[in-house]
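Morning. Coffee machine broken again, so started the prediction first thing and wrote up yesterday's gels while waiting. Chain of 211 residues, entered below exactly as on the submission form.
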Amino acid sequence: MTENLLIHVADICHSTRALGPGLRAALWVQGCPLHCTGCIAPDWLPFNAKHSLTPEQAAESLLQDPSIEGISLSGGEPTAQAPALAAMLHLIRSKRTLHVICFSGFQYETLLLRPAESGVLDLLSEVDLLIDGPYIQAQNTGDTFAGSRNQRMIVLSNRPLPGSGPWEFRRMELRLREGSILAVGVPPKDWNPSILHTASQIIPRTRQESS
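Came back before lunch.
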């Protein structure tokens, strides 16, 4: 049942190769209780409902590109919206067989202890690969797919990784939006998120001058 369930969405990218193997759609949720020092997405920490979708609407949006091979969930903290995300993934899986990656700032062992009513176990049952643990700035060596070396890649299913060739662990894609830039992927070690705010102000002016 998805009645009354809503996903508070920070952003959606309909196709990317920067958040896991293969071509993937990505959804970032709004809101995280952890507030890790050096978080790369500070604007997505507050729990607010500026943009909300039902599981059906989110599933439809993520399935826009028929060539995608997987779904990646990040944020924000996906497990804070576990019931709605679990319902969304269940709907997606009823239509297509896609590989699912979920990033969480909580360790896997902690998530397994969450009560059934939290929906976390339901969410994990729909996930193929969990990347767990809080971001620790001092352990960001720039050589792992996750943000810091304490974070683990935990395989939760036997579904094979999509795509072909080596998995590029650190890759960034910048998507130009109207008045903003969306950074997709795990940033380099010395990433400064304020770069995006500066660039988003410069690029519209550059476009206007060149038109």
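Residues 199-211 have pLDDT under 50 and may be disordered. Going to sketch it on the whiteboard this afternoon.
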